[in-house]
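sorry for the late reply, my laptop died twice this morning and i had to redo everyting from scratch. anyway the thing you sent over, i finally got around to it. pasting the sequence first so we're on the same page, its 196 residues, then the predicted structure underneath. double check i copied it right bc i was rushing
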Amino acid sequence: MSRLPRGFYERETEIVAREMLGSVLECDTDEGRASGIIVETEAYLGEHDLACHAAAGRTARTEVLYGPPGTSYVYFIYGMYWCFNAVTRGEGLPSAVLVRALEPLDGIALMHKRRPRIKSDVDLTNGPGKLCTALGITGSMSGKTLQRKPLLIREGEPVTDDRVEVTTRIGITRCSDWPLRWIIRGNRFVSKGKPS
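ok and here's the structure:
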């Protein structure tokens, strides 16, 4: 599978979020490679989107969001979980797609090693923090290009419109009524949270 070109990300965030469904997120670490099919995404649109980190303006934390499209933005939440995003649009236009859930593909034994209490493959990667733990994604990978290791997003099987559902985003309080979450309808690996 070839990697998604930088130009893929250099478009409106909503389009990128929709078209990332079915592609493959892959992470290489010293422990090995783990990957999964992207089954759920959310778009965060910039400084006017109060749920986007860029709403705080340009800071040390958000600097990556203002960088080139096709860059990883990995941030820490709740003092315990990393979350992975792909930066979109153009430089100076802070926006990104949050990958919320994956269908495990390669390195499943390694994912279970990283999440030893999890017995079911379904629960390995069905949330943004879960998938980062399972794949070994950490903050050290933030600001890296998605064109080479350790993080790549590869082309996958296209997902037709009749298999896609759009909802409001999950787990936020601001701009919670914006329909910016895309899922593969009926996929059992989609996260369990309810839309706003």
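The chain has a mean pLDDT of 95.
thats about all i looked at so far, will dig more tmrw
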